[in-house]
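Ex. 9. Protein: NfeD-like C-terminal domain-containing protein.
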Amino acid sequence: MLTGYLESYAFWLLLGLLLLASEFFIPGLIAAFFGLGALLVGLLTLLGLIDSLPAQVTVFSLSSILALWLLRRRFQRWLRGSEVDLAARDQDDAGLLGMRVRVLTDFVDGVGHVQLNGAKWDAESSDPLKSGESAWVTDHAGIVLRVSASHPDNNK
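Predicted structure tokens for NfeD-like C-terminal domain-containing protein:
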């Protein structure tokens, strides 16, 4: 009986470690919770709190699904950070809106270049901007700034 007992808890602990390790190779944040369930069963079996295979499978199933259901969303945000939600976030995450820029080149057909914080940016504008003038950022699409000759607060 002692041999089966030792093999049983060792199996669950090894399975738990393998499932946790598999998350590094196939990320999806699902196998980790089943790994935690297997580690729990291995620990409870080692402590002698559960011993029959049906009890082990039941505890494994319930604890894994419960952990998956309760914790997955929280762990996803923690592991992946806030970059997952960029599309839903405010357009001014970069702090660009309302910034004053210097026009570097005359705008031709609504396209030109501006300088912001010492860097040259591609820009678009419906205003006829000339080199040396000031403009203000009204919007951005990736690395292209949309600028205006008037300050955004004046447009309200």
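Check your answer against this statement. Residues 81-91 have pLDDT under 50 and may be disordered.
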